[in-house]
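Our working data are protein records whose layout never changes between entries. The record below serves as our worked example for the rest of this section:
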Amino acid sequence: MKIALVEYGAGNLPSVERALARLGADTARAPSPEALSGADAIILPGVGHFGALMRQLDSQRMISPLQERIANGTPFLGICLGLQALFAASDEAPEGAGLAVFPSRVAALPATAKLPHMGWNQVQHAGASRLLEGIPESEFFYFAHSFAAMDAGGASIATCDHGARFIALLERGNLCGVQFHPEKSGSAGAKLLSNFLRLASEAAR
């Protein structure tokens, strides 16, 4: 099973790569549409600015191929900014557009909260999830962000609270996204990535 890691300059790609290697996953960096074609699953890592991410994906001709693979049911995991990219737009870059898998907009966390939201916080399960199987409720994961999705049309499976309640994890079919960084979240993050690999393996059969 081949896992494609979308390569667009994200600083956390090497740490995601290492976390998956520890789980025995076969990964390959994907800087182009051609590199996605043979992938059984796709991971979009993400740190940085929403607008910069979408401009880079556009320059690499990756937007339509990603949308098509997601629509076709290819297992997909967006991490942090990679989750936010699934939405139509973000207040971080009002002039830009996201992948628009979800029609709503990513919003800034309230200025009354300490920003960025950085460090360990609890995730509250809000429904059955294949990604969270075997992970205790109210487990701590590592976050680093100032913007978040608040509504995914019922696809939200877990939430977190930092000034406002936001989507920490979403899951719809083989489409998954996490606002936290599983690659920095210790054993709980490793278990989540293992669960995604299992999901992808089952889809590839």
